[in-house]
Amino acid sequence: MSVLFSEGFLGGLRLENRLVVSPMCQYSAVDGIAQPWHLVHLGQMMISGAGLVIVEATAVEPQGLGTRGDMGLYDDAQESALSELVGNLRTLSSAKIGIQLTHTGRKAATRTIPERWRGEPLPPEEGPWKPLAPSALAFDEGWQTPQELDETGIRRIIDAFARSAERAVRAGFDLVEIHGAHGYLIHEFLSPITNRRTDDWGGTIEKRNRFACEVAKAVRKVWPRERALGFRLNSTDWHPDGSTLEDALALAAELKSIGVDYVVMSSGNIAPGIRIPPATPGHQVAFAASVRKQIGMTAMAVGMILDPHQAEAIIASGDADFVALARPFLDNPRWGLHAAAALGDDIAYPPQYIRARPNNWLGFSHVHPHSRAPATRLQLDRPRSVSSWDRPNSA
C-alpha cells in the first residue's frame, strides 16, 4: 500500500488515509443555511476516496460573513441544517467530516465569486454590513473602511468561535479547523500590514499572535479531545513589512502548546498589489515541511497538489503528514479513487459504483492508461465495500 493511502491520525482522530478535501466555499447558502447544493457537492466529496472532507469556511457571526452566500454556524437554523447534512453524509462513506470556522474581518460584505471572479465590495444600495478589523484600514480602494474592534468586540468574537465550535459538536462534526489565513480577521491580527494597534492586541509578535491564540484556547476548551482541532496558518505575507515564515513557526509552537492537533500551511492574500511568486505544483509544501520538522507538529500541505505521485512523494519524503486538495476534486470528484489506482492500491469503492472499480472493469486501463492498477494486474476478488450482487464485470 502507498503511504498516501495508509492510515493517519489528527490528534485522537483516525483517518483511513492521508488525503483531505480542502474547504471550498460554494456561495450557495441562504441566510447562512446549508442548501441541497451542499449535500450534492459534499456527497461527491464523501465518495471521492479521501479520508477527510472539510466543509467550507463558515462564519461565526453575521458580520463575519464574506458574502450573502456564505455558510454560517451562529444560530439554531444553521446548526439544524448542518446536523441534517452531516447525518446524510455519514450514510455515504466512512470518511471523516470536518468544518472550517472563520470571520472574514475587513473582507466582509462582498459579492460572490460566481458574480464576479475576484469579488468586489457590495455597493451601498445593496445593504452591505459593516466589516470589522484590528485596525481601520480598508482592504483596497473602493472598499469599506472597517470598524476597529475594541476590547468588547474582540472578546465577543473569541466567544463566537467557541459557541460555533459547540454547535459543531452537536451537529456531529469530527474536526474543526480555525481559519487563520488568506487575509481574514485572524490573519489581520497576525500581520503587521493590517494590525497597527498599540495596545495588548498589536505591536510585538506576541501581542499580534494573542488573538489567534485566544481563539484557539476558547475552541480547544469546548472541543472534545477525541475530535481533531486544526488551524489554517499563513506562512508568509510575501511582503518585506509583513509576517514571515519565522513568525508562522513561532505561532505554530504556541498553537501546539495550546492543544491544536495540526496546522495547514498556506500563504499570501493579506493585501492587494503584493508580488507573489507564481503558483507552481507543490509551491507551499516547503512551509509544511518547516513546521513539521522544526516544531514537530502534524502538518497538512496545500496548494497546487495535482498528481497522485506528487502527493505520494510529499508524504513519503516526510514533508507533510497529510495533503489537502481543492480544485482537483472539483475537476474530478473521483480523484482519490483514481489516485489509488495510479499508485497500485485497491481501496473500497462505493457499492453503487463497484462496476467501475479497477479490478472489476476491463476498460479501466484504457480510460486510465498510466494507472498501475489495470484489471489484468489485480486479482478479481470480492469487493471490500460489500454487496452480495457485486461481481467482476468486463462490461
TrEMBL record:
Residues 10-340 form the NADH:flavin oxidoreductase/NADH oxidase N-terminal domain. This is NADH:flavin oxidoreductase/NADH oxidase. Keywords: Flavoprotein, FMN, NADP, Oxidoreductase. CDD domains: OYE_YqiM_FMN (cd02932). SUPFAM superfamilies: FMN-linked oxidoreductases. Its cofactor is FMN. Transmembrane segments: none annotated. It comes from Aquibium pacificus.
